[in-house]
Structures are given as C-alpha cells and as structure tokens.
Amino acid sequence: MTSEDRLLPHAGVRQRGPAPTGTRLLLVRHGESHANARGVAGGPIGDGGLTDLGRRQARALAERLALSRELAGTHALYTSTLPRAIETGELLASGLPGHLSPVRDEGLNEVNVGDGDGLTWAEFEARFGITDWSVEPHKPNAPGGESLIAFYDRCEATLNALAQRHPGELVICVCHGGVIEQAMKIWLGVGATTRLQPRIENCSMTEFEVRDSGWRLLRYNDLAPLPAE
After folding, report:
1. Do residues 25 and 218 touch, judged by C-beta distance below 8 A?
2. What is the pLDDT along the chain (229 residues), one digit of tens a residue?
C-alpha cells in the first residue's frame, strides 16, 4: 500500500482507485493520416502516412512528454505496421527514454479492409455494399477483410499477450482508433459485438492497467493540444 492509498476511504465507498501496480498499456492513436484527410480505407495501400497536421500533432505530444516526463518509466514502445502509426511512433520517441526503439506488431493494426484498401468510402460501399456490424458482426467488411468479431479477437489476443510479456511494466502502443475501442470493450467486459463508437482524437492517450483481477481505465482521450497559431 502506498502512502496515497492510506489517505483513501475504505473500498466499500471509495470513488478513486489505488495507484496502479499492474502492467500499464498506454494506447496512442496515430496522428492525422492522408487516409483520414482523403476519406479512404486506410490499409497498407491507402494509408499514405501522416499529413503535415498529423506530424504536428505527434510532435506536440512528444514535446509534452519530454517536458512532463510522465512516461519516463516506459519499458517498451510498439507500433502497428501501418505507415501512419510507424511515423507517429518515430516522432514520439524523442519524448521518451532514449533506449526505446519502436517494435512493429501487426496485431495492433486497424481493422483489415481487404480488397477495399485505398478506395474512398463511397467507392467501398458501391463495390461491396454496406455491412452493418450491429446486425452481422461475423461478416467481413470486404473480401479479404475482417469481421467485427475477428477484429476484436485479434486485438484482445495482442493486448493480453503484450501485458503478459511485460508484467508490471509501462508499455506504449501506437495504434488506431478501432484498436482503442476494442480495448475499451475488454475493460468494460461487454463482449465483441457491442458497438461503443467512442470519440478518439488523433495523438490522444488512453491508458489501462492490466492485472489478474481484470482491466482498469487510468485515462481516456488525453490530448496534448496544438499551440495556437
């Protein structure tokens, strides 16, 4: 028990949780990508990397982290294998401990859009129709793509594997809004088919503590705003 915990009321009425002691998974959504700006399905083909704004967002977060040193105890840095996450991770590294090198993990990728990669969303719908995951969560979004169930299962397996690989450590994962939504579903215990559709900003941080007793939310959509121009 920490000195802070001794000041809290007993667990039966406590509103604030104790200081984290388990593995901390800090999920960072990438900066704005060309896929975001152009409204296209952003797999490896359509991704396009970061826009100028996306790079500025990543640098703003890196500057905050360098000044605050709030993540100075980070043990590992992972990114998805999509260009927008790789580039964001490289820019964030300047605000993190110097020994960290980003490790790419395709399990952190956004939902696979299969043959729809690089199409605008209007073209995507015209070619493959509209999939409603509220009704058909087992249906892939396009030929060669993923279903909601498959995406959730992949994210759950990847995040739990990272937590097991780094017991009691702080791990940063530069990933995607869809991955963060699946992580929130794991925390809430609502299952794969639930649609949360949260608002997750570019280069925001959402953090969970993972312990044997389950997941706990430590922060959500924590954003380093860009300086005024």
Report:
1. no
2. 555 667 777 778 877 778 899 999 999 999 999 999 999 999 999 999 999 999 999 999 999 999 999 999 999 999 999 999 999 999 999 999 887 899 999 999 999 999 999 999 999 999 999 999 999 999 999 999 999 999 999 999 999 999 999 999 999 999 999 999 999 999 999 999 999 999 999 999 999 999 998 999 999 999 977 765 4
Alpha carbon distances (Å) from 2 to 16, 24, 228 = 14, 17, 39
Q: Are strands 204-211 and 74-79 parallel, antiparallel or unpaired?
A: unpaired
pTM over 0.90: yes
Judge whether 165 and 180 are in contact, CB under 8 Å.
no
By the 8 A CB rule, do 88 and 201 touch?
Answer: no
Q: Which residue has the tokens 């977060």?
A: 61
